[in-house]
C-alpha cells in the first residue's frame, strides 16, 4: 500500500480508544466508516469497493482477522454504530434549516458550475463535511441533486424560449412537425457524409438554415459547457415525436440549444469536406500527371544512340533537307516523344496545377459560393492576411461573373511563386478559376496548421480560446512553467540547432551503421532496416499455456464483464435524461451488451436476439441515453490506466511509443513536430 492510501486508512490512538468501546463484531466496520467520513465526508454504503489490501491494513491496526465487511447499510446495528461515530466525530444531525441552505447552495453555486452527477455528489458530501453535519444516505442526497438539476435546467430552457423571436419559434415548430423535410428535425441530425459535391452543398444548405434563425448565442455562451453537452445529448437520443410530447418551453429550449451545438458540428463537418476535397483534387491530379509523364518517358528508348545517329547523318549531309536526312534516322513520332519528355522536366507543378484546374472547374467549383456564404474564416496572424483578403476578392469576382481580373486587384502575397505562371497569363491577367484553386490550396494548409480558424466552429475554433482564461495576466508564469522562451526567433533557433545537431550525429554515425541508409527517391529518404523480431520469451509461452488451461474458450463478453468489475468503467456512463429508473444491475447488463454489440459490429439486433430477456428497444434506449464519445473516452482511459498499473515491467517492459488502430501500428512521440490531425482516426497521428 502506498503512503497516500496508508495515510487515509490509518487510525489514531483516540480512534482505537473509541473503537475499543464498541462491540467486537462491528469494530472493523466502524474503523472503515471513521476513515471514510474523515476523508470523503460520507459513510460507506457499498462494501464491494474495498480492496483486500485495505482490509488487511485496517485489520492489522486492530489486531483482528481481515474479514471483508458485508453488513447492509440499512441494518439496525449499522445505523446504531453510525450514530455513535457521528457523536464521536462531533457531527451535528441535519435539520430543516440545513436542508434549505443545501438547496440554495445547489441552485446558486453547484449547478451553475456544471459537472456530472458523480462530481456533484462528491462535492455535496464535502459540503456536509465542511459544516460538520451528519451526511445523509447517498440515495437521499442524489434525489436532492437531481431536483436541483431539474430546476436549474428548466430555468435555462424557459429563459431561452422566452428570448426566441416569433419567426424562430415558427421555424422550430415546423422543423419538429415535418422531421423528414429539407430542414426537418431528422435531416438536421444527419452527418455531412463523405467528401462529395452533393454532400457539401447539402451541408451548406442546412447550416445556412440554422444561421438564419435568431438563436440566443450570447445567452448560451454564459452557460457551463457541461450543461450544453448534457442537453444536446438528450435531444440526440430522442425522436421528433418524443420531442413534441414535451412542454412548449422545454421543447423549444432543447431544440434551440441543440441547433446551436449542431451549428458548430456542421461547420466542422464542412471544413473537413473542404480539406478532403482539395486534397483529393491535388492527389488525383498529381497521380494522373506522373502517370502521363511515365508513359511519355517509356516511349523513348536509346536517346543517346539516336542522338549519335542524327549527328552522323547531319555531318554526312550538312546541306541536306531535314525531311531527307534526319527523318529517315529518327521519325517524327520519336522526335515528338523526346520533345514531350523535355517539356515534362521541371514543369511538374505547372502540369499538376493545370489538371487540378480542369477537375475543379468542371465539377467542384460549384461548392465554393455556398461554402464562402456560410463559413467565416479568421486568422490571428497577419502573415496570412492575404489569404483572407483573397477569399473576399473571390466572393466579389464570383458575384460579378468574371473569368479574368487585373493583377492589381490581387492582394500582395496571396499567389505563391509556384502558382504564378498558372494564375497570371502572358497578358498580365489573373485567371479567376486558377486563383480560386490557388487560394483554396493555401487555405487547406493553414487550417490544418490552425493558422486560420473558422468562426463558430468547435474543432477548428480560435486557438486562443484553448488558452487559460488568465493567460494574458500570467503569461510569464505559464512560459516559465513550460520552460519555454517567449522570443519566437530564439525558440525557432533552438529547435533548428537541435535538429542540426541530430543531423550531424546521424552523418557521423551513418558510415558505420549498416541498419540505416539513404534513399535517392521517395518521400522518406532516411531508411531504417526493420528490426528482427525477438524470440518469444519462454515465460510468456508458459503463461499463455496456463491461461488457456484455466480459462479455455473464454468469450469476449465474459472478458468485458470482468474488466468492468475490476475497473468500474461502467460508472462513467451517465444518462442524458432528467431522471433514471433503471436499477444499477440492469443498467450495467444492458450497457455491456450494447458495448459488445457496437464494438464487435454484431449490432444491437443480433445481441438482443441472443438474450430473450432483453429486447432490442431496451438496448436502443441505453445506446441513445448512456453511450456518447465522452463517456467512451473516459471508460477507455480507465481501462488503460488500470492495465498499466498492474503490468509488471520486469515481464512486459516499460510502456513504449508503439500504438495501434485498425490493425495499423504507428509510433507516437511526445512533442513530435510531424504530428498532425488525422482525418480518418479523428485525432493526432
Automatic annotation (TrEMBL):
Segments forming domain DUF4158: 6-147
InterPro entries: DUF4158 (IPR025296), Tn3_Tnp_DDE_dom (IPR002513)
Domain Tn3 transposase DDE, first and last residues per copy: 558-683
GO biological process, one term: DNA transposition
GO molecular function, one term: transposase activity
Name this polypeptide is given: Tn3 transposase DDE domain protein
Organism annotation: Pseudovibrio axinellae
